[in-house]
Amino acid sequence: MNRTMNAVFSKLLQAQNILVCGHIMPDGDCVSSVVSLSMGLEKLGKKTTMAIDWKIPSIFSPFPRVERIIDYSRYSTQLENSDLLVIVDASSPDRIGRFERLLRYGMPSILIDHHATNTRFANLCWVEPSYSSTAQMIFDLLKLMEVSYDGDLALMNYLGIATDTGFFRYSNTNSTVFEAAAELVKLGADPCMVATAILETRRLEEFFLERDAIDNLRLLSNDRFAYSYLRVEDFERYSLGEDDFGGFVGDLRSIASVEVALFASESVGGEAHVSLRSKSYFDVSSVAVAFGGGGHPRAAGFTLKYDGDLEEALQEAVELISRRLESHSKDATL
Length: 334
Ligand code: AMP
Ligand code: MN
Ligand code: MN
Prior knowledge:
This protein is α/β, with parallel strands linked by helices.
């Protein structure tokens, strides 16, 4: 039995009013972990508040309880009484947006996360990179706590396992992932509903934006490295935001010759989110960390701040990746 998971269990039992906080630019694992942990704790008689300091992407609107997640602007009145902050799926304190203040104010904190680059910034840290997703850690934790699942909880817990494994395709997909998913489906999660809500709700404008991103596509290092970017004005042309365009970096990686893919989305002038993916041997998390971000060996990201033009600002990362790719043989772990 995992000793840290047990310590998390007993700290949760002692608390009464728990603030469950996910990361900015929330993905499926983040939303899933926040909502399913909150639902599970409420079944044990705890009062919880769900917090993510970002606008929740509309693909998550069909899911139960998501509309109850609050951002920091709605914090003060509701949360004054919280006696414990539980942070999920966040690798560093800046990832929780303005809720980071609560750590500085000294609120007791627990961190539950699966990023290898985690900086362990809470009082009690349960960080386990061998897990596919934070949602799978929540599943093991709620089982340990003997929470009885209903269909909504099973669905919300399944969501993060499905999305963080790319719907059971990525290298983090192992037999424990299928076991957890199978149990959650037995408990009432509907895999088709999740796949349809996440994968089959694209807007036509996203395809137009994709055309622009393909126009900017460059291949380097014998076609092993693909990168592209979109500027603020590209998003504005179709009234889309960077949150509406998350899958493209995965499409770049899907090119047969490609090992590393980079995609940058400019959110405001002088600031872009950079997503990195690799296929089988290049550790993109080390590149992300070098630029102040984090992530996993096959999926990582960072925020780039710059004066001037995005394409120029990207060159430092682009050169670092192509240099590393070119100086190593294909079999070496980078
Ligand atoms: P994304 O490319 O945004 O889908 O993110 C891929 C992975 O990198 C996820 O595991 C994120 O948690 C992580 N990540 C993305 N952006 C950042 C960042 N600015 N700082 C730390 N980790 C990040
Ligand atoms: Mn996440
Ligand atoms: Mn995750």
